[in-house]
Design brief:
This protein has 182 residues and is of the alpha+beta class. It has a single domain, classed as Gcn5-related N-acetyltransferase (GNAT) (Aminopeptidase). The chain contains 4 helices and 8 strands. Strands 1-2-3-4-5-6-8-7 form an 8-stranded mixed beta sheet, sandwiched between helices. Helix 1 packs across helix 2 and helix 3 packs across helix 4. The longest helix has 15 residues. The radius of gyration is 16 Å and the shape is globular. The two termini are 15 Å apart.
């Protein structure tokens, strides 16, 4: 499988655009609500801290077999940023994450974006898509379900591993060569 590179993805209401360092200022405002960090820890980043993070992310993984793909979720209606998506991809596998800013939550945007991302990844040859979600984060669990993922019995750092429905389970004979989740 060739390495995956982030490309623009369109949905009915969203443009998922590859991350740019120049997005940091706008994204600092989108991610400013401390409540966004309730399940993941940390605190809102400053524009300078986001610029530094985005420089590292856009430089790519030091491992040539791993792709770091990052998108800004933009509303097609007005072009404003509303959140982000991430995928860490290795041959045949990808681990995904999403965050939608507080003002845009409750509109189905995260589900729409995550569905588009899993569809795009499977179109790139990824057969195992996973996400790790805190067991009490019911909104994220609903997004994962909408994207076709189902919870497994596996736990990592207090979070449940979710996996694309129909994809081989980690440790199964079909998944043994892929190395499991990234």
């Amino acid at each position: 499988m060739r390495p995956v590179s982030a490309a623009a993805i369109r949905t009915a209401r969203l443009d998922l655009l590859p991350l740019r360092v120049e997005d940091a200022e706008e994204m600092a405002a989108v991610l400013a609500d401390p409540a966004l960090h309730h399940f993941t820890g940390g605190e809102p980043a400053t524009p300078d801290a986001l610029r530094a993070r985005y420089r590292r992310q856009t430089a790519g993984s030091p491992d040539p077999d791993v792709s770091w793909c990052n998108w800004i979720v933009r509303l097609r209606a007005d072009g404003r940023a509303a959140g982000y998506l991430q995928a860490t991809a290795a041959p045949g596998t990808a681990e995904i994450a999403w965050v939608i800013g507080t003002p845009w939550q409750g509109r189905g945007l995260a589900a729409e974006a995550a569905r588009a991302l899993t569809d795009w990844l499977t179109g790139q040859g990824v057969h195992t898509v996973t996400a790790h979600i805190h067991p009490d984060h019911h909104a994220s669990a609903a997004v994962a379900r909408a994207a076709g993922l189902t919870p497994t019995t596996e736990q990592q750092d207090g979070e449940t591993r979710w996996q694309l429905s129909g994809a081989p389970q980690a440790g199964s004979a079909r998944n043994a060569d892929s190395g499991g989740a990234v």
